[in-house]
Amino acid sequence: MKKFKQVIAVFLIMGILGSQSIFAKGFGDITTSKYQNAIVNLSDKGIIKGVNGDFNPSENLTKVEATALLQRAFKLATIPTKVTEEIKDEKKQFISTDTTVANLSTAVLPAAKDAIGHWGEESIETILEARLLSLSGQETFDPSEDITSKEFALAVAKAVYGVEKEIDFIAKAKEDGIFPSDLELEDKAITREEAAYLLNSVVGNEEDFKIITVFATSDIHGNLVPYTPAGSKMEIGSVAKMSYIINELKTIQPNMLILDGGDSPYNTNIANLFKGKSTVDVMNAMGYDATALGNHDFDYEFENLLELADRADYAMLSANTYMADGSYPDAFKPYIIKEVAGMKVAIVGLTDDESKLYTHYTNTKDIEFKDEFETAKEVIAEADAASDIVIVLAHLHTDNNVLPTVVEGIDVEIGGGNDTFGRPEIINGTWVVNPGGVAASLNQMNINIYKGEMVGTTFNQIIINDTVPDDKAVKAVVDSYIEQMDDMMSEVIGQSEVDVPWSSPIVRTGESALANSIADSQREYMEADIALQNGGGVRAAMGKGDITLNTVYSILPFDNKVIMIEAPGTAIWEAIENGLVQYPETGGRFLQVSGLSYTFDGAKPVGDRVVSVTMPDGKPLDMNKKYKVVINDFMAGGGDGYTMFNVLNKTNPIAEDVTLLRETNDYIRDVFAKYVRENKTIKPELSDRITILNPQKGNGKLN
Fold first, then answer.
1. What are phi and psi of 164, to 5 degrees?
2. Winning range, highest mean pLDDT, from 82-96, 103-117, 569-583, 638-652
3. Rounded to a whole number, what is the distance in angstroms from the first to the last CA of the chain?
4. Is 601 exposed, middle or buried (0-12, 13-18, 19+ CB in 10 A)?
5. CA 538, 279, 660: angle at the middle one, nearest 5?
6. Cβ(675)–Cβ(517) under 8 Å?
7. Peptide bond preceding 584: is omega within 30 degrees of 0, i.e. cis?
8. Would the pLDDT of 500 be above 60?
9. d(Cα 474, Cα 695) in Å, to the nearest integer?
10. What is the 3-state secondary structure (H, E, C) of 394-457?
11. In 301-416, which ranges are continuous DSSP H helix?
């Protein structure tokens, strides 16, 4: 298994070309080359290297040597690849909008099978992922094959203008004067000295051609440590590994910005237990310049977000987040301007103006989200007038791609809210980046500037896997919080007056005292009429006496979040019937409830078991009335047969008569922990919420 070698250090030492490199600084065989100045200049910049004091200017350039030159010249971080026994026979999948966290294992496979173990493997994979060169066969690259002058020139021009552009790249480079007019570009091998001359004409003068590297993330959601996603065959993620890549490139590329598209602070245990402080401290250590405020940045009280903004060394941006009284919060900024490589770069933040739908209403009661598009027009025009380049951090979900169609002046948009992977899209002249999510990817977008104007980009989406080393400083911050988290899990948050038993039959075939309290906590938290909790989500008992966080996390181990919908009585009745489909077997879909009680006949056929549903006032469930119902996001996506509640999973039919009122990122376990803290002492008990006529005996099979 190939280990990730010192990543970007390959640019500075012999890592990419190794002992077989044919480039050298201080070579003694270039005195007669008419391109001697270009060779020396690129050598001084560390772009060409070699051994034994020779350059061999008249020899042909090979494809692998071309990848090494391109990677160094355009300052591209190395793409980390990985092969394991489980995936070694699978085919490489290049990053696209079809990429998900579940299939990232194939995305990190090397594309060129004939380059595995080759001294230029890393540069080959980096340039292939950047789409500057392509495979010659299905899984072959032919590293030692000569590259023609047209092929090399095309790769250079693509790096300058961006492979997503639909242009004649070589003609454009000649027209702009980037390529030398006296070098013929033909379908024959290019020599090393000609390659140096061509490349030097582009990157040799740093006053004319500048590269600003933007490292972008979005939707980190508090994922600070490595993890294995459901359905994946490999561990991904780690902010410490991201930081390693960033810092290694920083040794040769000081012109850098580190930006985030929002939803970074919360949503995992290590983030939530510290109310986002852990994430902010990590982002401080990584050197972030700015983040947009995403809707889930408001998942805790607004005062907590203000504290995080004060703690952050980076700017929290949102042009359209205002106080309800019309004032703008001092803790935030609509945009900032950074000077990088002598260029003024404006960074604007936008927040989805429907963000109140995605979090608990009390967290945003003092906030007004102004119209995202109208605000953007005004603020971006102002930022554009004061800068050379405008980057927008747009946490607008499905409106990310709409923004450039209604607002002018945006050079680069880093989208957030969709957790979507993929290469950039050019929309109305704006480069729109899909950064992926959950700390699985680090995006490198190089903004290329020629004579003061942005002419294009070079882009790679870097999937973080365990071949990447850790940045020691960032890992130390993460480890300190892991240690604190372990201590906090033993914290006593309340008391139970009784022993509350648990077994699969208890929570999956009848009323559970513990599940009653859990459902009550959700209904109270969301101020809803009804709460429905699938029994399969409750996984442990609770003893009499101390209740610790570890107790709560053992009872509710899944990352289920509370969702509030508005549903008619007919849908609620149908949902209760669905919960009884597997009865008397121990099916996880069996419903525990709060805010109603129900009676069913275990002897009746599936679909006709519910006898009655009664509200707390003794009246029957009104089939025509709309009720506010709390469920979890698993059920809200149609999981376990709850298609009548599907408001989240757009790949399946959306429930027509059900409305999504509020989608939160609040874990059920955190809601229950809050309930325990506030009540201090609880006494879970049975209260005739589920009555069974003609109980049946199951065979003990767990579903």
1. -75, -15
2. 569-583
3. 39
4. middle
5. 50
6. yes
7. yes
8. yes
9. 57
10. EECHHHCCCHHHHCCCCCEEEECCCCCCCCCEEECCEEEECCCCCCCEEEEEEEEEECCEEEEE
11. 302-311, 372-385, 403-406
173: tokens are: 């480079």
Nearest of 174, 176, 162, 175 to residue 208 by alpha carbon = 176
Provide the pLDDT for residue 19.
Answer: 30
User: Helix axis angle, 192-203 relative to 36-44, nearest 10°?
Assistant: 60
**3-class DSSP state of 608:** coil
CB of 600 within 8 A of CB of 609? yes
User: What mean pLDDT do residues 61-80 have?
Assistant: 97
In a 13 Å sphere around the CA of 128, the CA atoms on its Cβ side amount to 33
Kindly indicate the confidence band of residue 302, based on its pLDDT and cuts at 50, 70 and 90. very high
Residue showing tokens 């340039």: 127
Paired tokens of 163: 């492979």
Tokens of 417: 């809210």
Q: Collapse the DSSP code of 673 into the 3-class scheme (helix H, G, I; strand E, B; otherwise coil) and give the result.
A: helix
Q: What is the pLDDT of residue 699?
A: 63
Say if CB 283 and CB 264 are below 8 A apart.
yes
Burial annotation 59-94 (CB, 10 A radius, 16+ → b, else e): ebbbbbbbbbbbbbbbbbbbbbbbbeeebeeeebbe
Q: Which of 134, 37, 7 is nearest to 462 (CA)?
A: 7
∠ CA 31-34-35, nearest 5°, is 90
Place of tokens 């119902």: 629
Mean pLDDT is lowest, of 1-15, 564-578, 581-595, for: 1-15
Enumerate residues 6+ apart whose C-beta is below 8 A from 696: 583, 584, 602, 603
Instruction: Phi first, then psi: give them for residue 95, nearest 5 degrees.
Output: -60, 130
Give the tokens for residue 281.
Answer: 């401290």
Residue type, 226: P
Residue 476, C-beta contacts closer than 8 angstroms, at least 6 positions apart: none
Rounded-to-integer distance, Cα 124 and Cα 62, Å: 12
Helix, strand, coil in percent for the chain, rounding step 5: 30, 20, 45
User: What are the distances in angstroms from CA 187 to CA 133, 154, 215?
Assistant: 15, 12, 36
Q: How far is CA 652 from CA 128, 220, 422, 516, 644, in A?
A: 36, 26, 23, 31, 11
Instruction: Kindly report the pTM of this predicted structure.
Output: 0.83
The SS3 call for residue 625 is coil
How does pLDDT run across 312-360, given as a tens digit for each residue?
999 999 999 999 999 999 999 999 999 999 999 999 999 999 998 777 7
The structure tokens listed for 372 are 């995202």
Contacts of 612 (CB under 8 A, 6+ apart): 598, 599, 620
